[in-house]
């Protein structure tokens, strides 16, 4: 090697070292800001604790907008969720922040669009590629594979190809440590925090539920179609894979109810993330065949039964009146389920992939009926903050807005002029659609070979959701000014995202 080559090599190593040190410095600054914010939160006094509500956040997995009887289902009977809706508020224009699991859950917990956490798609177990596989529909030949054994060589090859498409370029292994979650905020405020069910934001430190504000965790690190599918209690395996998934709802309900029993003197925050009705489906034996919606409907009806038990427990403990409950889904339905007349399903930005059944309950504290103003799951963090009397962090963009004034009837307008649809694609973290307060929706054009219609150009669309809920008719010719308004807004959002991808102030 000549002197020039040696000099170039040394310079290259130096530049890499400098960039690495800069990266570590930035990370240190962000973690310091994270710690400083949490330490600035004043814990509730004993008197103040009486004035804030317990909060229960219930998130189902792949539940369609039309899968509850209170949302129009005739195949699935959900009397307890119907009661919650009748005595509370239905939000019939509430969206998930992504049409797939992990990014949507990021939005729920941080109040931020998933792109700000560089979370493009779902997380896979952090094991060798031979173990990175989906058991539901990737060609598994034996029951052992389904239960958690090693895949066949053919499955391995298919998985390699899939990982390159949807998992290979994901630059993070979970929710970043410098992100602030609602659990961290409420814990600092003096809430006891517990999580039950599906996490799906990383399966090793520092991305675990206990790392992100939950005093207690019981559940799985990822989807029930990924292996090895253990149930964890905090950072110890509680139920080892493979196990009988028909008992999942039973296990989770028991843990949730025990947590409430132990913390009924409050305040507490319980995050219940059911893995149902995500595929592969299962439910308790006594609920099989109870619905007209097959095993999919049976899973939902078993869950609904648990909602009845939850209400009974809260009433028995005398805390129902002071407990705020949110019920929603992480995205639209997958293989089965009803999008309720909306176009699309899980995995795309049509409304069927992102509009989700949402119910809020707080006895005599919020209005009763249906609210049709637009909202998104990023709104839960600022809403819960307002209930707990604490300010969200100001050192980063919080995309969500508190909907508490809307729920209380203090306003009849959404806090959002626009909502952004983040594409769950492989190549870019950016918005691919935008919805306005007056119910128009714009899609940007893309030439991606992995777009909804493979190898075909997707043109820019404008939909009038006031008259076309199933997004069937492109009306940009009729409303050119609205088309240009939304196109420009999305362009500006994406440019701001490119300039400041994490949204730091």
What can you tell me about this protein's structure?
Helix content is 32%, strand content 14%. The model is unreliable at 128-151, 162-171 and 449-456 (pLDDT under 50). The protein has helices at 3-40, 46-49, 79-87, 101-110, 143-147, 153-167, 182-189, 248-262, 294-316, 351-354, 380-388, 404-407, 480-499, and strands spanning 54-60, 89-91, 94-95, 192-198, 216-220, 231-233, 236-239, 268-273, 323-329, 358-361, 369-371, 375-376, 418-422, 431-436, 440-443, 461-464. The chain is globular, with a radius of gyration of 23 Å. It contains 13 helices and 16 strands. Strand 13 and strand 14 (431-436) form a beta hairpin. The chain has three domains: 53-123 and 170-416, Alkaline Phosphatase, subunit A; 129-167, no CATH class; 431-499, Arylsulfatase, C-terminal domain, CATH 3.30.1120. The strands form three sheets. It has a ten-stranded mixed beta sheet, with helices on both faces.
